[in-house]
Write a structure and sequence with these properties.
alpha+beta, DNA primase, PRIM domain, 2 domains, 6-stranded mixed β-sheet, 6 helices, binds adenosine-5'-triphosphate, binds manganese (II) ion
């Protein structure tokens, strides 16, 4: 068991009315991190994380036998989950209703952990205004072997381009290989407009610096380049939630950082649970929830 982490998850869960089974089961074998310690982690970051996750449809990565065994994405509530992990219906494009998970509080995160959720992925819109994104994500995906500094440069280039258009953005290390540049929005434009905007911005960067960037999903196009993945910005697409743990080697966390901090960050997967808790104590994204910016037709990049 990891000695450096709180281990009171069972008591935390009980207080919230969630029964935590096998609290001492190790879910990250490399680090010896237990289910109970994951619960304790979410209690510690809840204040910073919850504003980013509540009210949004989710996609979950579940690893019933721990990180190193089979994991799977689960979008829909198939039953058997504690009630604190809620579900709400979304009308799909074909008119059919589907149930999606959501959480409203720490109890929801604990209930998910009980069900072996190791990653929390969020939609870019809320249930109450589902057709209008209130966050955009530029997901920077480097080709293998690229230096992290190339990813950091890409993040700054995206930030500058957005700033020219009047949009403030915020960086997050994904806990995997890349950085996400996130733009909080007032929900005004609908999904197709948001996607077109993001595609236009990614394509412009790729056109201007084809040796550095590609806006194409094709792996062949990525050779030695950074893929600016704008495809997170579609109705139903998700991105990893700030402060979610990742089901990757090392038990890394997706962590918001400041633009001033980013040049000093050396990897996307450098935040351990303990480091993420520490980082969560100081707001990395001041004003994130206060900005009143929206996409306008004049911003469209063509
Ligand atoms: P990295 O920095 O390593 O790229 P990432 O979280 O950005 O980490 P990506 O592979 O770029 O990982 O995926 C971006 C997002 O796409 C994921 O965070 C997830 O929300 C979504 N995604 C990826 N694969 C699936 C899948 N099989 N089912 C549902 N959503 C997925
Ligand atoms: Mn990515
Ligand atoms: Mn991607």
């Amino acid at each position: 068991k990891s000695q450096s982490l709180d281990d009171d998850g069972e008591a935390v869960a009980e207080k919230l009315g969630v029964r935590l089974t096998s609290p001492d089961r190790i879910v990250y074998p490399g680090q010896g991190i237990t289910k109970s310690q994951i619960v304790a982690y979410y209690e510690d970051v809840a204040e910073a994380m919850l504003p980013h996750i509540t009210g949004r449809p989710l996609s979950l990565v579940r690893c019933p036998q721990g990180r190193t065994k089979q994991c799977f994405f689960q979008k829909h509530d198939t039953g058997g989950f504690p009630e604190q992990l809620r579900s709400g219906s979304v009308v799909e494009k074909d008119g059919e209703k589907q149930d999606y998970f959501y959480v409203e509080d720490l109890a929801g995160l604990v209930a998910g952990t009980q069900m072996n959720v190791l990653e929390w992925h969020v939609w870019g819109s809320h249930f109450d205004d589902i057709e209008k994104p209130d966050r955009l994500v530029f997901d920077i995906d480097p080709d293998e072997g690229l230096d992290f500094s190339a990813i950091v440069s890409a993040a700054f280039d995206i930030r500058d381009r957005l700033k020219d258009l009047g949009l403030v953005s915020f960086p997050m290390v994904s806990g995997g290989k890349g950085i996400h540049v996130i733009v909080p929005l007032r929900p005004k434009a609908e999904w197709p407009e948001a996607k077109a905007f993001c595609k236009g911005l990614a394509q412009t960067l790729a056109d201007e610096e084809p040796q550095r960037y590609t806006a194409s999903l094709s792996k062949a196009q990525r050779k030695g380049r950074v893929f600016i993945d704008y495809l997170r910005n579609e109705r139903g697409s998700t991105a990893i939630c700030p402060f979610s743990v990742r089901s990757r080697e090392g038990a890394p966390v997706a962590v918001p950082v400041g633009w001033d901090e980013l040049p000093k960050v050396s990897a996307a997967n450098g935040f351990s649970l303990a480091a993420a808790i520490e980082r969560s104590k100081n707001e990395a994204w001041p004003n994130y929830f206060k900005l009143k910016q929206a996409l306008t037709a004049e911003m469209a990049v063509t």
